[in-house]
Amino acid sequence: MAKKLQKEKSIEETLWESANKLRGSVEPSEYKHVVLSLIFLKYAFDRFVERRDELISEGKEAFVNQAVFYNAKNVFYLSEISRWDYLIENAKQNDVAIKIDAFGTGGKG
Question: From CA 103, how far away is CA 79, in angstroms rounded?
């Protein structure tokens, strides 16, 4: 008996299916706003971590939670609940959409 070969999906097909799952009930025309916002927030978090590591390497650990040391280098200071790792840790919770909405406002919105 010959084994039946499964057709492998292309990366484009896999990404498109993933995007549709993530999109859920959001209209395709509005989805770009969600995706672009998340991309920006990931970029802001990466810059934040880079600056935090820089402060630590300079022996300024006492200042890692002070926004002025980030703003001085044109880096957004992110509160704990506005950080990418917090969002990832809470991604499988039922209220993740609320957390994402609050993400950009530092939890104030």
Answer: 9
Burial of 68 from C-beta contacts in 10 A (0-12 / 13-18 / 19+): exposed
pTM of the model: 0.68
Question: Could you tell me the end-to-end alpha-carbon distance of the chain, in angstroms, rounded to an integer?
Answer: 61
* Cβ atoms 45, 38 nearer than 8 A: no
Instruction: Return the axis-axis angle of helices 96-103 and 28-57, rounded to nearest 10°.
Output: 60
Mean pLDDT by 10 residues, the chain (109 residues): 63 76 73 79 94 97 96 95 86 76 56
Residue 80: CB partners within 8 Å, gap ≥ 6?
86
**Vertex 82: Cα angle to 80 and 83 (nearest 5):** 70
Torsion 62-66-72-76 (CA) sign: positive
Cα–Cα distance list, 29 to 20, 35, 50, 58, 61 (Å): 13, 11, 33, 45, 44
